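Hey all, sorry for the wall of text incoming. These are the two entities for the joint prediction.
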Amino acid sequence: MAAGPVKGIAALKRMLWEENPVIGQILGICSALAVTNLVKNTLVMCLGLIFTLMMSCLTVSLLRNVIPRQVRMIIQVLVIAAYVIVIKIILDAYLPEISNELGPYVGLIITNCIVMGRTEGYAMNNKPIDSIYDGIGAGIGYSLVLLPIAMIREPLGLGTFFGMQLLPPDWTKWNMMVIAPSGFFALATYIWIVRAFKAGEGKR
Amino acid sequence: MNEKIKTVIFTVAVTAVFVFMVSGVNALLNDKIVANRTVARQKVILKLFGLYQADNKWPDSVIPQLFASATAKISLPEAPALECYRHSVGADKFFVLAFSGQGFWDNISGFIALDLDQGKISGLEFTQHGETPGLGGRISEPEFKARFKDKPINSIRSDGLRLKIVAEGSATKPDEVDGITGATGTSNAVEKIINNTITSFIRLNEGGKL
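and here's what came out:
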């Protein structure tokens, strides 16, 4: 972590690259593996996470001076869970098919370590505005990993992109890319490449 | 002691606020969610009647109307819990009925279309199950559901079943259906549910009164 508190837009920016929650901290892997076989589902998942992070960080930051230390984690989980349930209800109402396909994964945002990590690690000690930047940054950082992976998995596995036919119809579908194990390979390869870049950056 | 009481009060208060928020959102959108579920069920039933395909891309608003005009619910006094539909016009013996039963993990429910004129299953759809994704969860794949199409329902095998689910790839007789490798529990549960559903429906229909 950087020395001293990071404020404002810098709190957002560092989450995109230097402290990207997925690449740097290997958090949020479960959903990264599960939902990245369709770009559309991934996008909804990313927006859901960004919303949850933003709202949870804001709420926890507003309450940070009144939350008793012993129950701070319970309160954080409660806040996160409440927002996630709200998202689930909204999806059920307006995007029932996507909600159905995402199944338990929307609910599992509650257990996404990124959210709790940011509320406990940043929002508990920082002002609301900075916490919002931090939360949105972490959410976008997560999306920057998931979306490219989905953009590789969906075309290779199903020949489509965002549900539209991308590759020629006689394309041999790589079933492997749709099922969970390929998520491991794709994510690992992605992290490998990004970290190789980062290492090169450090040497300069 | 005072600190502890404050902590408890704080926790309860925060919980109350968020419970209120969540239930408020739920109350606001509940009607829409219920409507969505009804449309989803109606789509499944219409699909089994051959009146709807997933690639039709019809707006959800036309579904309830189509459902009401094309299908008729059958109610039998001796089986009040039965959820069964037929074409609203014509007297063909084509029925779509709801089934439900214990799966390997969770309840499995759905609809099955029976063509009694031909004595065959016409189609099968699952609306809810909690089977292991990738193993038992494969029951909701079109390829698995298609295995039941055109299977005979009137003959009873020597083991008392109408349809037997056998090891994947080994179904040779018409009354055998390929199961799912790695999901024997789910396969057995589906076998039991389907057989029970068909048997109880045929019993209700004794004498061809429907």
